[in-house]
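Now for a chain:

_____
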Amino acid sequence: MIHVVLYEPEIPQNTGNIMRTCVAIGAKLHLIEPLGFKLDEQRIRRSGMDYIDDLVYEVHPSLEAYLSKYPMPMWMITRYGMKTPYETDLKASGEVFVMFGKESTGIPKSILSAHLDRCLRLPMVASARSLNLSNAVAVVMYELLRQNGFPGLSAREVLKGEDWLLK
């Protein structure tokens, strides 16, 4: 199973989009408090659409509470990473945990510096500070899934049927 870990997310629309992505790829979402919004906010429901009812997620009251239940190792996405997900073996024989930091300040440097070998960076121009959080989650998750052969995901239209184009 893939686990998407959001450290203190601040923007409800980003989290709603990430919720939708997690449902679409069969990932579990972990939210580490404090959150910059309430989970029942309209903005989250609108971003997540009707997928929220199918979301598998857990809310953790603090980073310490999360780490006591799910200790390292986990991958961390940060602008300070020295390797990219594309040059890193993300193949999984079991569970994979990937943490993303809050929109304003990222993952605490104290966590990053203790685990530099687990820090990954998405390539971008030198003058860019970061990507939008929900975009970064989607990019990294699909690279992880690609490396693992997209387990459990459909490559064909299932809801409308494959023959809908022929009509």
